[in-house]
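Reply to dn_fold:

You asked what the input looked like. This is it:
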Amino acid sequence: MDATIIGSPARVVASPVPPCPDIDVTGHPPLEVQGVKRPRISARRTAMAGGAAAVLAATALALPTAHAAPAQARLSAADVASARATLKAEASIPGTAWSVDPRTNKVTVTADSTVRGAKLAQLNKVVAGLGDKATLKRTAGQFRPLIAGGDAIWGSGVRCSLGFNVSKGGQPYFLTAGHCGNASASWSDSQGGGEAGQTESSTFPGNDFALVRYTGSADHTSAVDLYNGSQQNIGKAGEATVGEHVQRSGSTSGLHDGQVTGLNATVNYAEGTVNGLIDTSVCAEPGDSGGALFDGDTALGLTSGGSGDCSSGGETFFQPVPAALQALGAQLP
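and this is what came back:
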């Protein structure tokens, strides 16, 4: 099986892992943007309840008599660029991903359960050849898009999640995953309901964001659904940092949290390669694609894809919001 985008659209009739929106399809697209409270268009009606997962940070206490381990050398930008170029040229295998920890500039390469046999041998060889520039780890799940997120949005045979409400030229829009935007030209706040918006721009692969223009009358609140009867107001967009504690909202799994583990991640989905993503320990499931990643009142990302689930844990990647806003010429309300 190839790596899948957690947030790609799925067919309304199918069920697990769709290729884009949160629809229940068997495709394997990016995760849908989870958590962005979509305008009050029946979001509550269509959103699925989800439990919140807490990630506890462990505090290490240094012993007075212990000798501190030597600090790990920080690789140069040239070393990192060279490593990424080698991985792109020799290890762009579906089911793999890599990101950089800016604190050490070391590249972490991840292979999902579909990478085995000759492909795994090739990956091991490439990473070994990079020496101390990169490390390889395995994840038990499969990288795929998860269609769903914050408040549910329904397209033509697919379901995804609304990320964040934005504006462009004084008109109301919302952001969601690009693999969701590729799957449908029209969106509703309920399955089979009237049109609430139309996809105006969509980018995937390469990046993973879409801009949908509101066509119906709805309250375009700049907030995220917390799935406990309350919302988190969103006032600005920002860049994620490694180690930052973050939350994700999605229509399939509800609200979950975790930490940012890497930046500028490259993910090789079966549908294509996406660059510049945020790598996290937050879980997500099909239908969460396009949902919101945030920290307090700051919008950080849109759910793209990943592996695992919210029962056993997982790894999820997000499209940075600032980059999407700049490319689309949009801003938060």
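The first helix runs from residue 43 to 46.
Hope that clears it up.
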